[in-house]
Write a structure and sequence with these properties.
The complex is a heterotrimer.
Chain A lengths: L1 E2 L4 H30 L1 E3 L5 E3 L4 H5 L3 H34 L5 H13 L2 H12 L4 H20 L20 H26 L2 H9 L4 H12 L1 H16 L3 H6 L7 H9 L5 H28 L7
Antiparallel strand pairs in A: 2-3
Chain B lengths: L6 E12 L2 E12 L3 E5 L6 H9 L6 E6 L2 E2 L10 E4 L11 H12 L3 H14 L15 H13 L5 E5 L7 H18 L2 E6 L2 H7 L2 E6 L2 E6 L1 H6 L4 H6 L4 E9 L4 E6 L3 E6 L4 E7 L5 E3 L8 E13 L3 E7 L6 E6 L14 E7 L4 E3 L2
Parallel strand pairs in B: 3-8, 3-9, 6-7, 7-8
Antiparallel strand pairs in B: 1-2, 1-4, 4-5, 9-10, 11-12, 11-14, 12-13, 14-20, 15-19, 16-17, 16-19, 17-18
Helix pairs in contact in B: 2-3, 2-4, 3-4
Chain C lengths: L1 H7 L13 H24 L16 H8 L1 H34 E2 L3 H13 L2 H15 L12 H24 L3 H9 L4 H30 L2 H6 L7 H11 L3 H34 L1
Classes of the chains: A mainly alpha, B alpha+beta, C mainly alpha.
Chain lengths: 306, 362, 285
């Protein structure tokens, strides 16, 4: 690596264009948003910069606080489910024979490459009132009803008068399902990386000393893979917190998350200062999460080989 | 331009610092036209830094650098009449052999016909005719080296610099390549300057050698001179194998000096010295015998053979003479039916001519 | 007897062969089914000859025909492709320059530069989307420009978040570059620019191609940022599908979605193949 002064012209030619682009088309818009967050709506389209914190304070209003808490709850549930599913999956993949591993990883990643919109839309078709899950359940209901009929219990309405489809869509559950569906690879990959780095002999030693597999997992594997687990948790939780499309398409009226509120401020409600404040709160949460992750990685007890 | 006896490379007081560490310490050196010159020294002695300064990849912090009579001290690497063959070859992986060799000529703006002609000529020289269209991935290590040699030679530089050219080759190939490089240099007639940590390589290939240690040049001489007349303890020890003895010298007569040593007793030699000195003798100068020698002007010491390392044509014999290090002596196994007259455990007398003893002042 | 044994009895599994244990295997298979079933049904039902899209009625391509005949949808698709193309071209230039800067030079504020480059990747898309929207209206970006200039705002926003991704891929490729190749070219007389053009660029190429394909896919797929920077005259494919989805689930949407899926997977597969192949050829050296 050379000091830039050695060939200043070359340095400037390669340094400036990306820097300028980021400066003008990324940092400037964000700075504008930041300024707006301290502003006040004066008129329909004007915003006066008053250096006020009222917009941030509004986030603590019970109305909006509820949404924030709900977002945290949904993101948290998503992360928890992702861990429960991701751990065994990552475990299986990391202990599979070497030739098979890349293929398994590819299988997990592949859905990630399809458009988010399309994946969410596909879930709608599966979860809605007359969607695939309910169709299968209805089919099973008919079978069950038929069997009951054959056995002579048909008139008692044991399974109900008619099939009532499960309300799987337009509620918090649907949002969580959708978020898990989208973010699972983000959990599996860091977990896989952490398990892959583990020193196998430590596990074997634990088993040799008499601990069962479950005990070994909680006493040996999990603690050593902790940095990877924390990493996976953070890069699942933070994006889930800022999700827009999934709650918008899959959620009900009361399943709004932070991103949906922000969108409303900028489109329908036309309250840009408040929307900006919320955006920045979300960004601060993101940076905080990444900083935590950075600390954990640097501290990262490797529990690795050798 | 230059007269034939002017040096093609002249370094005057060149130093280079990396931070606080001094990599090259006030080096002044001349390399003559048509020489095969070698820079040797242990790793970290500054030879590679010196080479890179010659090539133009580092700038000296002090001093001047003249190539072909012109001051090239601040001149960039792409404007010097020298070319460097890298230790790792640095062959361009995405170009064919012909494209690699012709690259410098293309940059120089030569016409296509001339590029093709010169490329063909130099490929003939390095014995790679017919390989023009191959890509580096299809070549062996030795072939790749020839490609980068050709690539540098086709530029007709005033000096060809080579950084550890033989280090990546296995032993047999290394010997063959040594002879080839010498032959190539004679054919082409330009000055070659190689850097190597292997002193035996330098001894066999070079006309003149500079021995470097901790950034400074300790001695510049022909291989024979370096071997038989090293000017200091470091050079004596670095080049070839040698036996060293500490002693204290006092002047006896005008040019006779008496040295008092622990192991050899009192030794008298021709020369000038005072105070702490080191005496040295090369292993092949030592004669081993079961009887005490009585000639004049020899130095003799008694000991017990501890080890014999047999190498077929010769043997290294290690004798315990009461010092920390055993005395090393080489004997040639000249006759096929000569039974070995010495064996481990024998008590022997080791002797050598006094004139074969080196007197080193530091 | 022995043959039967060989067929039915596998070699005993070791204690660490988690992939062999049936409960874990079952979980893995269930998860894979969970992940792929919705997509497969979506693709399958794009061929379903039924408006209501639940029961299989017969194989048909008519919804594909319908999708291709939908002028607005096709316009949106065209817009998406144009945006993706322009933003990819500029992204790989900016990404290459950024990667080169970070690989070659030491300079004050380098950490800040790296951090700023990482920002578009980590911040929530909604934040970037509304920021761009605020910027566009505030700056007074001209509306109602002819095609393709009316896609300018979207393209600029896409470039801002695509080129850091390209930069990462290209920089990774540069790490494996042997600096002595550049020195050697310099030694043979090449100027800075010639060394870059003849030697470094050739090495970067697989990274540039992979980065370009990545940028193209990211741009093609993007919804949130585009949603905030597009207008009624500059609708992109994902935005158009979004509006169709809000209304209903129809096979036409399935057909359009399937096309996008296949396009994305094909491009990513090509990118991977190129990465793999360039790694293979490197090993010979």
């Amino acid at each position: 690596m050379e000091p830039w002064r050695k060939t200043p012209f070359v340095f400037l030619v390669s340094f400036l264009p990306p820097a300028l682009w980021l400066g003008v088309f990324f940092v400037a818009p964000l700075s504008l948003l930041w300024l707006f967050s301290f502003g006040d709506k004066s008129g329909i389209t004007d915003i006066e910069l008053k250096w006020t914190l009222t917009n941030y304070a509004r986030a603590l209003d019970p109305l909006y606080l509820g949404v924030v808490l709900k977002s945290l709850w949904i993101a948290g549930a998503t992360t928890a489910i992702c861990i429960m599913i991701g751990l065994p999956v990552a475990l299986v993949i990391s202990f599979a024979p070497g030739r098979v591993q890349p293929w398994l990883l590819l299988l997990i990643i592949l859905p990630f490459w399809t458009n988010l919109l399309i994946r969410t839309y596909a879930l709608i078709a599966v979860l809605r009132g007359n969607g695939h899950v309910n169709s299968v359940l209805e089919w099973l209901w008919h079978i069950g009803d038929g069997i009951l009929g054959m056995v002579g219990l048909g008139d008692y309405g044991l399974l109900g008068a008619g099939f009532t489809p499960l309300a799987l869509l337009y509620n918090d559950g649907a949002v969580v399902t959708g978020l898990v569906y989208v973010h699972l690879p983000f959990m599996v990959l860091p977990l896989y990386a952490a398990f892959d780095r583990l020193d196998r002999s430590l596990i074997e030693a634990s088993l040799d000393l008499g601990a069962g597999h479950v005990r070994t997992f909680f006493s040996i594997i999990a603690p050593l893979a902790l940095p990877g687990i924390v990493s996976g948790v953070i890069i699942t939780f933070i994006p889930a917190l800022g999700a827009y499309l999934t709650p918008d398409l899959l959620g009900g009226a009361d399943s709004q998350m932070i991103a949906n509120i922000i969108e409303r401020q900028f489109k329908a409600a036309n309250d840009w200062p408040f929307g900006s404040a919320l955006s920045f709160l979300l960004m601060y949460a993101t940076f905080f999460g990444l900083a935590m992750r950075g600390i954990f990685i640097r501290r990262g007890g490797e529990g690795g080989r050798g | 331009m230059l007269a034939q006896n002017d040096p093609i490379i002249r370094l005057k007081g060149v130093s280079k610092f990396f931070g606080a560490a001094c990599a090259v310490d006030n080096v002044s050196l001349d390399v003559m036209h048509g020489e095969f010159f070698a820079l040797v020294g242990p790793s970290g002695c500054g030879k590679t830094t010196l080479l890179r300064m010659l090539a133009g990849f580092e700038t000296p912090d002090t001093g001047n650098l003249f190539i072909d009579g012109r001051d090239m001290t601040g001149v960039g690497a792409n404007r010097r009449p020298v070319n460097l063959v890298f230790q790792s070859y640095a062959i361009f992986p995405h170009m064919s052999v012909a494209e690699n060799v012709g690259y410098g000529l293309k940059i120089a703006g030569l016409a296509r016909d001339e590029i093709m002609a010169r490329t063909a000529e130099v490929l003939r020289l390095v014995k790679l005719t017919g390989q023009e269209k191959k890509h580096p991935g299809q070549l062996s290590g030795g072939q790749r080296q020839r490609v980068v040699l050709a690539r540098a030679l086709v530029m007709r530089p005033a000096v060809l610099l080579l950084d550890e050219p033989l280090s990546a080759l296995d032993a047999k190939l290394r010997e063959a390549m040594q002879l080839e490089l010498v032959h190539l240099q004679k054919t082409v007639g330009i000055t070659f300057l190689i850097v190597t940590h292997d002193q035996s390589e330098a001894l066999s290939m070079a006309n003149r050698i500079a021995v470097m240690h901790e950034g400074a040049v300790r001695q510049v001489a022909s291989p024979g001179e370096l071997y038989e007349a090293p000017n200091c303890r470091f050079v004596a020890d670095f080049i070839g194998k040698i036996n060293l003895f500490e002693g204290v010298a006092t002047m006896h007569q005008k040019d006779r000096v008496r040295i008092n040593t622990a192991l050899l007793g009192e030794v008298e030699l021709t020369g000038t010295a005072q105070g702490a000195v080191t005496l040295a003798v090369r292993p092949e100068k030592i004669r081993i015998s079961s009887e005490r020698q009585t000639q004049l002007n020899i130095i003799q010491v008694r000991g017990k053979i501890t080890d014999i390392a047999y190498y077929g044509g010769y043997s290294n014999v290690f004798i315990d003479i009461g010092a920390v290090q055993p005395l090393m002596a080489d004997i040639t196994n000249a006759g096929r039916n000569d039974m070995s007259t010495v064996a481990a455990g024998d008590s022997v007398y080791c002797s050598w001519r006094a004139t074969d003893t080196l007197l080193l002042l530091d | 007897m022995n043959i039967i044994k060989k067929i039915f009895v596998q070699s005993p599994s070791g204690p660490l062969d988690y992939h062999r244990r049936w409960p874990l295997r079952a979980i893995l298979i269930c998860i894979l089914i969970f992940m792929y079933a919705p997509i497969f049904t979506l693709i399958a039902f794009s061929f379903n000859d039924s408006k209501r899209n639940i029961v299989w009625h017969g194989f048909t391509l008519k919804y594909y025909e319908k999708a291709f005949a939908n002028a607005e949808l096709m316009l949106a698709f065209g817009n998406s492709l144009a945006i993706a193309l322009f933003s990819t071209l500029i992204s790989i230039v900016l990404g290459s320059l950024a990667a080169y800067t970070l690989w070659r030079f030491r300079f004050p504020g380098k950490a800040a530069y790296e951090g700023a480059m990482a920002l578009p990747i980590v911040i929530p898309e909604i934040c970037m989307g509304v920021a761009m929207m605020a910027f566009i209206t505030r700056v007074g970006w001209p509306q109602n420009m002819p095609w393709p200039l009316n896609l300018g705002a979207i393209t600029i926003a896409h470039i801002a978040f695509c080129f850091p991704f390209a930069a990462i891929v290209i920089r990774a490729r540069l790490q494996s570059f042997n600096r002595e190749l550049a020195e050697s070219a310099h030694d043979l007389g090449a100027s800075e620019f010639q060394v870059f053009r003849d030697i470094i660029l050739a090495h970067m190429r697989p990274g540039i191609v992979a980065g370009g394909l990545l940028s193209f896919t990211l741009s093609l797929d993007d919804f949130v940022i585009t949603f905030f920077t597009s207008g009624p005259n500059s609708v992109t494919f994902p935005v158009k599908i979004y509006s169709m989805v809000r209304f209903s689930v129809t096979p036409e949407v399935n057909a359009a979605s399937t096309v996008l899926i296949i396009l994305t997977i094909a491009l990513t597969a090509i990118a991977l193949r190129l990465q793999y192949r360039s790694q293979m050829t490197e090993q010979v050296k």
